[in-house]
Each structure stands twice: as structure tokens, then as C-alpha cells.
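It would be a great kindness if you could assist me with a short task in structural biology. A protein sequence and the C-alpha cells that stand for its backbone fold form the material at issue. I should value your view on which stretches of the chain appear to form regular backbone elements. The record follows directly beneath this note.
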Amino acid sequence: MPATMKHPITALAAFCGLALASACGKQETPKATADVVAVVNGHEISRPLFDVYVKNRTGHSVKDLGATDKAKLLDDLVEMVLVADAPRTVDAAAKAALDAQLEFTRLALNAQQKVDDVLKTEPAEQELKAEYDAQVKLMATAREYLTRHIVVANKEQAEGIIKELKAGGDFAKLARKNSTDKETQEGVVFWVGTGPADKPFADAVRTLDKGEIVAAPVQSQFGWHIIRLEDSRAATPPDYEGAKKEIRQGLQQKQLKALIEELKKTAKTDKRI
């Protein structure tokens, strides 16, 4: 049995989409015999459901497994159906919560399928090149900044260090003493440029002269940064082939956003909270 196979009951709890598929398994329209892999107390287990179950248990397709593994997995799925279909008393609140979870799972799966469809759409080569040229044009006046950082946990401490530096404190010594980040403790410098992650840092040092300290600390996911500008240079755009993957992803995200905006325009929505 593949090493990645999960315990059957745990797999059901973790993968609510499977619960949805099981809940929807009792179809009014009869399935062809070839599409049914087992029948449990009249509950037909379809081949697509078995395929989904195997994929989520093992990470593999049914066709990749041997007969012994497939038989064991089918036994596990039969047990799951027996447990799921067993009579039980459910109060109204619990039933409502279950129905809501199933509805959410259905919505999430349908939405993800649509997103996947959009992301499978490959932008044309001329569209990729046009977007690249537009981005290069925007970078014509862009600059990159060589920065040295002290990173601390809270804003008050950062402001105190800035006061020390303005009063003549030694940046390297204060970094070794206070910085929570090993690289900044050791004086490693960082080029920050035009990317979204770099923008807060670039904005903070854009108007500084070499050797100057920011007037206020800059927050990131790592903490509060005290930054000194070491140098700057004209930004160099990446070559087309190196940038193509990121440009493709950006265009696909734009396409997805445009789809959502178009759907919102034609939707009839009645919000009640």
C-alpha cells in the first residue's frame, strides 16, 4: 500500500468534498453498471467517487495502483459508506450545520473548478510580449535601493533605536545588540526594488540621501524595520524569458478578476446582513 495513504475515517473528516460526493451519491437517475464499483445496502458507489476517494487517500490515480491496493481501498470506502449511512439522531442545529458545510463545500469545489479553467488558459505570445514591454516602459524611471536594516519586534523599540541613531549611535552596534534577524545582526545589505513586497521599503528610502536613516520604522511580516540607505541605482528589467512565467500568472489573475467583475455586474444580489 502506498506510504502516503491516509486512514480512511481521517481522510473523510479531512476531505469534506468527499463527504459531499457521498451525500450526493444517491442519484435518481440510475447509473450504468460499468460506472458502479460497489452497492452497499442499495447505496451505489460510483467509479468517479471511488477515483476521488483513491486520489485523496493516496495521492495516486486508481490506474496507478495494483489489484490488492484497489481492493483494500474499496473495502475502506464501503466501511465509510456504512458509517455515513448508519441511522442516527441529529438535532436541528447539527443538521443545519452539516447542510451548511456541504453547501460550502459544493460552492468551493465549483468555484475552484472555474478558477482552474481560467488558469489553464494560456495567454498568446504577443499578449505576453506586449505586457512585458509595458512593464519595461514603466520601469524606465524606476530605481533600486541598497538598504541596511535593524529588525525589532515592536514599534516603540524601533522608534527608540531611531532616536539613538539620530543622536549619533552606531548602526552596526545597535543592529548586533537589538536586531531579531541574524542577517541584519551581521550587517547583510539588501537591494529593494519595484516588486510589491519591496514597495514599503522603497517608498521609505526613496527621498533619502546615502547614509540617511528613515524617519519612522517600516512594518513587515518580520517585525519593525529601521532602515539606512546605502546606495541606489537604475532598476534593470528582467529579460523576457525570465519574466514570462510571472507575466503569464499576472495576466491570468487579471482575466480571473475581470470575470468576477463581469459576473458581479449582472448578478442580482440581496445582502441581508
